[in-house]
Amino acid sequence: MTNTLHRYGNAESFRDDYIVFASPSKGKNDEGSIPKLKKFLEIALPFRPVNIGDPAHGGALRPSRNETVASHWHRDTQPRLRKVIDGIDEPASVAAVFDNIEAAENFLKAVKEADLGLSVNISTSIEGAQKCCKFAGIAPHSVGYSLGFEGKLEKLPNTQILALTTMCGHGMISSSMGKKMIDWVKEGRRTPAEAVTYMARFCSCGIFNPSRAKRILEDARNKME
Amino acid sequence: MKINPDKCVACGNCVYVCPVGAIYVDPKINRAVIDQNECVECYACYNGLSSERLNPVLVRTVRKLFQMARLRFDPEPDICPTAAFEPDKLVWPRVVRRAFSDPRATHESTGVQGRGTEEVKTNDVTHRVKQGEVGFTIEFGRPGVGVWFRDIQKMTQALAKANVPFEKNNPLTLLMSDVTTGRLREDVLNEKILSAIVEIKVPVARTEEIVQLVHEVETSIDSVVALGVGTRCDENGEERVVGPILERLGYRLERAKTNTGLGKITNIEAKSPKVEVAVS
Question: In A34-114, which ranges are E strands?
Answer without folding.
Answer: 51-54, 58-59, 94-98
